[in-house]
Design a protein that fits this description.
Layout: H1 5-32, H2 34-48, H3 63-92, H4 98-101, H5 104-137, H6 148-165, H7 168-177, H8 183-188, H9 190-204, H10 209-235
Helix pairs in contact: 1-3, 2-3, 2-5, 3-5, 3-6, 5-6, 5-10, 7-10, 9-10
Length: 236
């Protein structure tokens, strides 16, 4: 029996509150392991800085304290990501056929793997290239003096952005599975998708050509891969 619209909203609110409680718990865990995480997150920048300049500065009295809380929160997002992805599936799942609901575990696993893969891609490839470019871009006498707030703001934005953007193939396959997309639709709008990927990369990647290309390339590959997976699904 189909639920009324307000029941869907009530279920959505319930699932969002559940995610919020889990995020609170995982953030507490993240707070206790924040120190090694902080050292890990500083590494891409410090590798691009001279040895005598490998420091982060804070200009506000509370900047360092709030940065520790922010690290705990981001760690909580990553620790709890399998649960958050499952809640998305649990909200969509009742509208699927019985054989489609069996995709719950593959969807959660794929979503988690792609989310972590996107963050790892940003950490190991995009960030080192971007930091090296911008630090060496200035005049020889220019000295970088990077603040805690500035660095971690950029870092967290890129990690979450790349993690979310790498969910593109998972989302496309899911939409095809529920009947909202088809192979013919994606093939007909391939150029539009390429333009959208290019614009998104230009807007959200660091403002240098190499970083933009590093974001565009995997997204386009994922798009084409998802198109072929959907084609195989429909042929079966």
């Amino acid at each position: 029996m189909e639920k009324p619209f307000w029941d869907h909203l009530d279920e959505l609110r319930s699932r969002l509150m559940s995610c919020l409680y889990v995020l609170l718990g995982t953030s507490v865990i993240g707070y206790f392991i924040r120190l090694p995480i902080l050292e890990f997150l500083k590494a891409p920048l410090f590798r691009a800085l001279p040895l005598d300049r490998q420091h982060l500065y804070f200009t506000g009295l509370f900047d360092s304290f709030f940065n520790h809380l922010q690290v705990a929160l981001i760690a909580g997002v990553f620790i709890g990501s399998p649960y958050f992805i499952y809640q998305i599936w649990a909200f969509v799942g009742p509208g699927l056929h019985q054989h489609e609901r069996r995709m719950a575990l593959p969807f959660v696993l794929a979503g988690t793997v792609f989310f972590f893969a996107g963050a790892a891609f940003a950490y190991y490839l995009v960030l080192p290239v971007g930091f090296k470019f911008f630090i060496e871009f200035g005049q020889p006498m220019d000295m970088p003096m990077i603040t805690v707030r500035e660095y971690f703001s950029v870092l967290f934005r890129l990690l979450l952005l790349f993690g979310a953007s790498f969910e593109l193939p998972v989302v496309l396959v899911l939409l095809a599975k529920v009947g909202l997309l088809s192979y013919e639709t994606l093939r007909a709008h391939r150029r539009t998708a390429i333009i959208a990927i290019t614009l998104a990369s230009a807007m959200f990647a660091p403002p240098d050509v190499m970083s933009m290309l590093l974001m565009m390339a995997p997204l386009y590959i994922f798009f084409e891969g998802a198109v072929q997976v959907i084609r195989l699904m429909e042929s079966r």
